Amino acid sequence: MSNYIAGQTVHEKYGGVIPELASRAHMQNIVPVVDTALAAAGCDLSAVDAIAFTQAPGLIGALLVGTQFAKSLSLALDKPLIAVHHMQAHVLANLIGEDKPDFPFLCLTVSGGHTQIVLCESPLKMKVIGETIDDAAGEAFDKSAKLLGLPYPGGPLIDKYAKLGDPNRFKFTEPQIAGLDFSFSGLKTSILYFLKNAGASNVYKEEFLVDEVTRQQFIKDNLNDICASIQSRIVSILLNKLKKAVKETGVKDICIAGGVSANSGLRTSLTVMGKENGWRTFIPAFEYCTDNAAMIAIAGYYKFLTKDFAELSINPSARAEW
User: What is the dotted CATH code of the domain comprising 10-91+289-305?
Assistant: First the structure.
């Protein structure tokens, strides 16, 4: 009924999220955010059936704030408490709205911290069938952006400049990883030396390394094409594994989720690949891609239907298995 988010720009000056600052902002904003969400929904707390919250995974300080607040509401209102796994919620964001996939469906979940292919057999029965063995796709975008001298968060800026560039101008090798797992560490290293060598090579060779002035000029002169080429390779790595998962499972209802699912190159390429292969593709609205309350609510809804409630003794976890 409402989906309200309080953001922080302070992290931009540090080039990444500072956990302590995030936790403090959670404490400062959680009451105003809840009040604003209730007002937008046109209801008060007495109309709420249950309290759902993110239990894991994530930054432990921020999780502690949300968990303790949710427990307090549950206790004070005598309403059921529902613990939600953050990554499962991203998958279930595809069930918000009218256009929904049928079960079973495959979901490519891509964010700054996770890259997974999930087989979703029901709202509460999911299995990770492929995941990154090192870095996440979102991290590859952000680290590449940092190498290019772009401000944090850099992923959206790569997407922006990629629209103006030639994705075939520069070539980056696709990692050959067995099965449905991903790897992005090698690609990041390849991009690092490509930039250090001003495009002459993707590997470390002392004779190719150029001075900083030459490197910066190369980036400035070729920024759009570099961004388009990086984005094209990251997207192809993701979708080639997804195509392999479809072949292995026979499932043809395909979704994406997570912050990187807001990337226009990924959204467009998935749609094209879906049409070419006879898939039904589903892409969440932008407001349900990045971290948001609506995805926690939809996960909480399905848990509510089965009375999968949490005890007040539950604690948050920075890491948690599915």
Answer: 3.30.420.40
